[in-house]
Every structure is written in structure tokens, then in C-alpha cells.
Amino acid sequence: MEISGIQHWIVSVARAARLDKAAGLDIPVDAPMDSAWSLTAISTGIDQDELARLVADHYRLHVADLTGADLHAHRLLPAAVARRLQVVPLRYTDRNLYVATADPVAMDAEREISHVAGRTVHFEIAPPGVLAAAVDATYPEAGGVRHEVPPLPATTRGGARVLVVDDDPDTRFLLRAALESAGFRVEEAPDGPEALTLLQVQDDPFDLVTLDLRMDRMDGLEVLRHIRTRMATATVPVVVATGSDDPEVEMDLFAAGADDFVVKPVDPRRFILRVQAVLRRRDTSFLQSLF
């Protein structure tokens, strides 16, 4: 974190860029982010877009393209978190999440986003005013009253119950072993029809489903669509395992209602982190819906 004395990091950026009147800048480190940006831009005679480019160059980051965000990237970060941190998810892969921010040195925010999304976070830079408008546009429902509240995941009740759906017995064994070693209760289904039958039983409902994309009797997308259109299962989180890292496949999964995905061959540790991240996002969304 590049702070000299009590000066805001943005002062270091302005001085490193040798901006006019940068030497006289005196912005406290605890100044609000939008105020720090505005004072720097006004004092040095540049606009905030140019300042964003300088900040990105200084920290060896990219300027965020807020008009080109992936359609479903925001699903990896709950609205309550995005609004509080003033960030916008832009793009994602199985392992990474690219996020627009006005504060490139916000390490606590980076850790929280990574914890919630289950991915390595990479910051890109946008001015605070533009970013605030993008947050509102990305999460327009945030703060509204919700009439249907999903049930709390079992992580808050003492042990989540997971249904592993895969037509490969070796994969089912691997995922079951990983989940049980992490304290989850696990049931298995060798195909889509059996999975849908198990999900209809509500005596001890499942808290999450892991679903193979390519299965013979009924493929994962079809199973997912059935899950999302049935009243009893519409809100159950689903993590899909796919053998493809094609962005179009990932977009199709999110469009069909997947909460997240992992790429095969599945790494057990990464798989568990992804499952835990989905349940954390579920907890956050539940708490947000109460207020």
C-alpha cells in the first residue's frame, strides 16, 4: 500500500505521474474514495477518466470496461457485498474473477470477494462516480423488498446435505469423499431422473446439488432446467461440473440457473472451496432479503 504519512494513496499516483500541482496535494488516508478522486482530478486539472488510466498504469492494472461485462458475472458476488464494497464483477473463469474498483489497494475487499466468490480476484480500475452508477445498473433489485425468502442453508443449522449427480461412479466416489471429509452429508444419483426423484423428497431437503453436465439418460442442462422449474427445488443451489472451459458453455449454465461451475478433471480442494463459496453467497442473499 503506497501511503506516505497520512496521505491517501492517490497522492502517490498524482506525484509519480508528475501532474501539475500534485506536490501540493494533501488528502488524508481516510478520505472517502469519491472525494479523494475528485480532489485529485480538480487540483491537477485532469478528468477522472484520465486519472483512472494513471491509477491503472501506476499499479500495473487495466482500466475497467464497464460496458463489456459478462452477462452473468454479477451472480458470483451478492448485491449486498458489491454495494458495500462499491465493486462490479466484470468477467470470470473457473479460477478467476475480474472486478472493477476505484480502490486498487483495498486488500480486505479483495480477500472478502475471493472468499465469497471462491476465485482469485483481479482488480481493474474505474472512477468512483462511474462505478457507483454501474453498481446500481448491475444490481437494480438490491434493497428492494422480497416476498419469497429462500430457506437458510444447513451451514447455519449444522451440516449441509449435498446431492452428487454423475453417471461416472469413480467421479461420484471422488466428490463424495471430498465432501464428507469437509463435513457435508452426501447422497448420490447416477443419472438425472433419479436425482429429480430424490430432490422431490422434502423430509430432509438437500442444501446443494453438484451436477455433471454430460450424462447419457438426461444431460445436466435438462436436469438443471427441471430443478429450476419445480417449486420444491427452484431455490436449491446447483454447482455444475463440466469438461469444457468454453465461455459460451459457462454462459449457458448461468442462463439455465446454475449457481457456479467447476471444470473437469475436478480438483477436490478447489471443488470444496467452490461449494462453500456458493453456500456463503446463499447465506448473504438470505440475510439481505430480510432487510
Mean pLDDT: 88
Strand content: 5-15%
Query: Globular, elongated, flat, extended or rod-shaped: what is the shape?
Result: elongated
> How many individual domains?
3
Radius of gyration: 22 Å
Q: Based on helices, strands and strand pairing, what is the structural class?
A: alpha/beta
What is the name of the CATH superfamily of the largest domain?
Response regulator
Order of helices and strands: HHHEHEEHEHEHEHEHEHEH
Taking pLDDT < 50 over at least 5 consecutive residues as the criterion, the unreliable ranges are: 142-152
In short:
The chain has 291 residues and is an alpha/beta fold. The protein has helices spanning 9-16, 33-44, 48-58, 79-85, 107-117, 128-138, 169-181, 192-200, 220-229, 247-256, 268-289; strands spanning 62-63, 88-92, 96-101, 120-125, 161-165, 185-189, 208-212, 238-242, 260-263. Helix 7 crosses helix 11.
